[in-house]
Amino acid sequence: MKVDPPSSFSIASEQVVQAQLDAYNARNLEAWLDTYSEDAEQFMLHMGSLAKGREAIRRRMEERFRDPHLHARLVHRTTMENIVVDHELVTRTFPDGLAVVEMICIYEVQAGKIIKASFAIGQARPL
User: Fold this and answer.
1) What is the tens place of the pLDDT at every residue in 34-46?
2) Residue among 53, 42, 31, 19 at smallest CA distance from 108
3) Helical (H) or strand (E) element with 38
C-alpha cells in the first residue's frame, strides 16, 4: 500500500509542536508559551480543563520550568493534518524526588499555534 507524503498542513502542525517540545526541554517558558494561542486550553484527557488562556497556562507551568531536571523524551509522534499526538517520557522532580512519567499529549494546531492540548498521564516511576 502506497502512503502519500504528509500535507504541508501536517508538516506545519508538527513544526509548532516540535518548537514547543524544544522550548520545554530548554526550560524556556516564554518560547514555550509562544507556541500556544492567546486563548489556548489545556485539558486532562476525558477529565476537564487544566488551564484556559496563555496567562493561566503560564501560572500553571512557571514552577515546573524552574526544575533543573525537566526533560521530555519523544518516544513516538503521529500527525494528521492539524492534530499531533506525542508519546513522551518526562523526567521531573516530584514531591517524593526525581521520577519519569509516561504521557500521551494530543495537540490541536490552528493558525500556527497550539489551540488545545490534552494530556493522559501515567504513574510516576522513581529514578
Assistant:
1) 999 999 999 999 9
2) 42
3) strand 36-44
